[in-house]
UniProtKB/TrEMBL annotation:
GO terms for biological process: gluconeogenesis; glycolytic process. It is an enzyme of class 2 (transferase). Its EC number is 2.7.2.3. InterPro entries: Phosphoglycerate_kinase, Phosphoglycerate_kinase_CS, Phosphoglycerate_kinase_N, Phosphoglycerate_kinase_sf. This is Phosphoglycerate kinase. ATP binds at residues 179, 293, 318-321. Pfam families: PGK. PANTHER family: PHOSPHOGLYCERATE KINASE (PTHR11406), PHOSPHOGLYCERATE KINASE 1, CHLOROPLASTIC-RELATED (PTHR11406:SF23). It comes from the Bacteria. SUPFAM superfamilies: Phosphoglycerate kinase. It catalyses: (2R)-3-phosphoglycerate + ATP = (2R)-3-phospho-glyceroyl phosphate + ADP. One of its GO terms (molecular function) is ATP binding.
Length: 373
């Protein structure tokens, strides 16, 4: 029986140690089932990280057993030095990040892992921006291919490299440094780039608008970007003034008081985005418009609802954004929901990922080992 090492991404949100959203696990099922139907024994490699800790994957194992209706073998703890035999057709390695060699991209660790299988499949697009052993070294050690989810991700996201117009790009959330390369890349191909969320506050403040006491990142945004007519910023906001929620127009700036906290986009901003979305042929969205975890969900939900009325090809991604859309049960409003967070951003900015480059290469070390036999 062929043994397939299948890299999946089970980096799911946890609540009190329980899996709070099984989206990524479900998204891996088609590739797992495909290899089972082909008669393979499937060894799943996955990671999970929460606040710098690497929890065990027992929960993911139980979830998987329920979803597949099969018993799933489990390699508890660190990877043993030699492969073990399992009767189960699906076997899950415990959190691969329990092994320091994974993040260190250590070749001898990768060789120990590769010894478990004859073939490698990467279906963890959303972890493929990491130069980790199970992502970039296994393809050198084993013949390989990409899984279905991986292919769907690259196929759908690549469409934005040659978008139909008008193309509306919506960016929210935080972390300027991860989103700035996207703004540079899409400034010429997008017809409008809306910047909202915490990122929007950083832009507003750089432009000289008042944002009260809202947190902003200490970055210098170029004048070229700030004054570009394609870059749109929120027109109004839901803010917290003392303990009161208020909807306030951002112009005139005197509307904003010291101590105000801008936590969400307001209705006029959503209306502008809805009008643009109605005319758009392509819409790409990453990052929430408000602080959803503090209950400021209005902008994110209203935008997801408005996008449902647009006939554009619509793709959304980013961990918090997708979690919010799933909570609102508005998945149907999108043509594709990316499992990627950082990987989606990096792929869009660079057109490739370390995991993609690794899959495109030959299994060089595997061939060398064969020659020696
Ligand atoms: C993700 O959640 O974006 C991927 O699983 C990568 O996780 P990481 O940021 O812990 O490497």
């Amino acid at each position: 029986m062929k043994k397939v090492l299948l890299r999946v991404d089970f980096n799911v949100p946890l609540k009190n140690g329980k899996i709070a959203d099984d989206f990524r696990v479900r998204a891996s099922l088609p590739t797992i089932v495909y290899w089972l139907k082909k008669g393979a024994q499937v060894f799943l490699i996955a990671h999970l990280e929460e606040n710098g800790n690497a929890p065990h994957l027992n929960e993911a194992r139980s979830l998987l057993e329920g979803l597949l209706g099969l018993r799933v073998g489990f390699v508890q703890g660190k990877l043993p030095p030699k492969p073990l035999e399992f009767a189960e057709r699906v076997v899950l390695f415990d959190n691969i990040r329990l092994n320091p060699g994974e993040k260190a991209c250590d070749l001898s660790f990768a060789k120990t892992l590769a010894a478990w299988g004859d073939y490698y499949v990467n279906d963890a697009f959303s972890a493929s921006h990491r130069k980790h052993a199970s992502i970039v070294l296994l393809p050198e050690l084993l013949p390989h291919e990409a899984g279905f989810l991986f292919e769907k991700e690259t196929e759908n996201l690549s469409k934005f490299f040659k978008p139909d117009h008008p193309f509306l790009f919506i960016l929210g959330g935080k972390k300027f440094e991860t989103k700035e390369p996207l703004i540079s890349r899409f400034l010429t191909s997008a017809d409008a780039i809306f910047v909202g969320g915490a990122l929007g506050n950083t832009f507003l403040s750089n432009k000289g608008y008042r944002v009260g006491s809202s947190p902003v990142e200490d970055v210098q945004i170029s004048r070229y970007v700030l004054t570009n007519r394609r870059v749109l910023l929120p027109e109004d906001a839901v803010l917290l003034r003392g303990k009161k929620k208020k909807i306030v127009s951002l112009i005139p700036t005197s509307n904003i008081e010291h101590g105000d906290l801008i936590y969400d986009a307001g209705p006029q901003t959503i209306k502008t985005l809805a009008d643009l979305a109605k005319k758009a042929k392509f819409v790409l969205w990453n990052g929430t418009l408000g602080v959803c975890e503090k209950g400021f969900t209005y902008g994110t939900k209203a935008l997801a609802e408005e996008l449902g009325k647009s006939k554009a090809f619509k793709v959304v991604g980013g961990g918090d954004t997708v979690a919010a859309i799933r909570k609102f049960k508005l998945e149907k409003n999108f043509d594709f929901i990316s499992t990627g967070g950082g990987a989606m951003l990096e792929f869009l900015a660079k057109g490739t990922l370390p995991g993609i480059a690794a899959l495109s290469g030959e299994p060089r070390l595997w061939r060398e080992a064969l020659k020696k036999k």
